[in-house]
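## retry 2 of 3
previous attempt timed out at serialization; input unchanged, resubmitting
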Amino acid sequence: MTYYRYRFSFGYGLTPAIKNLMIVMGIVFLLQEVVSRMMVVYLGLLPGLVWHEFYLWQLLTYMFLHGGFFHILFNLLALWMFGGELENLWGSRRFLFYFFFCGIGAGIITVLCTVILTPQYQFIPVIGASGAIYGILLAFGWLFPNRLIYVYFLFPIPAKYFVIIFGLIEFFSSIGGAGGGVSHLTHLGGLLFGILYMLYPTVRQKLRREYYKRKWSQRGPDSGGYYH
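## retry succeeded, writing output
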């Protein structure tokens, strides 16, 4: 019974939000195959156009375009494998917010770093949901750190180490520049915004505690109040 639950908890089938994301990405990919160049220019993420011409919609739309069959296949597979459990835990609305939070955040990081650090690449389009997928991977490793992930279906590794390894790979790859048509900055941006989201409740609670502690100390010990 334990093996059954463990095995089928990974992926959780097609949850509603993930199913809708897959459908939209599939439809866009089919349209892209017909009018590829035009869609990539207007819907892909071109940092120069976002920065200079305010094509802000590209921060959203670039996630639904992909560079080929295996690109979209890998992203959809990762979305299903790691996102299903998150959606079941959080609910569809929160999961979708997180998906777009990481995806748009990854786009913002890509635009800023490209325009400022590597302006020669600012008119090269970035496409794909990988930034959001890396955010999902981060959340999965954060919430289920000891869940085993089988690399190449052979080598088991706890999710927390899997995320750390991939994060380091993307970091050092981004230092070395873009390679193989992969935007490592976008992947790092998804990881960064995932960390910010996951840390937010702890930081908010700490700030609130400090606020009430400071407020209580200003009132003084004889100002009355509740005791417990």
